[in-house]
Amino acid sequence: MPRRMQPALRALLLPDSTAAGLTASERLALDVRATAARTGRCTCGATMSLPEDFEPGGVYVVRVEHERDCPAISPAAQRALRKLGLR
Questions:
Q1: How far is CA 22 from CA 13, 27, 30, 36, 69, in A?
Q2: Residue 48 and residue 34: Cα distance in Å, rounded?
C-alpha cells in the first residue's frame, strides 16, 4: 500500500499581548516579537535565519539578531515574558 506524505506543519508559540496586567510597552514588545516570528522579518529590519536541514517532526530554535533599540529585546519584553510565566 502506498504511503501518503503528511503535510508540513509549522508550530509557533506567540504569547498573548492582550493578557491582563501588561503595560503598553510590554504589549508592544510582544507584538513586535510576534510579527517577526510570523513573517520572518522584524520591524527593526532583523531577519530570521532558518536551518537548511529541516526534518519532519523536528524542533528547532531560530535566532533573530534584533537591533539594540528594538522593542522585541527590550527589558519590557523580558518583563512581559516573566509575567506570562514564559521566562
A1: 18, 6, 10, 20, 20
A2: 12
26-85, pLDDT tens digit by residue? 999 999 999 998 888 999 999 987 777 777 777 777 788 999 999 999 999 999 999 999
What was the pLDDT predicted at 54?
A: 72
Residues 12-26: pLDDT tens digits?
678 899 999 999 999
Which backbone phi and psi does 8 adopt, to 5 degrees?
-70, 135
Report how far residue 12's alpha carbon sits from residue 35's, in angstroms, rounded to the nearest whole number.
Answer: 12
Show the cell assigned to 6: 503528511
- Which DSSP category does 37 fall into? H
Compute the distance between CA of residue 87 and CA of residue 81 in angstroms, rounded to an integer: 6
Are residues 80 and 29 in contact, defined by beta-carbon separation less than 8 angstroms?
yes
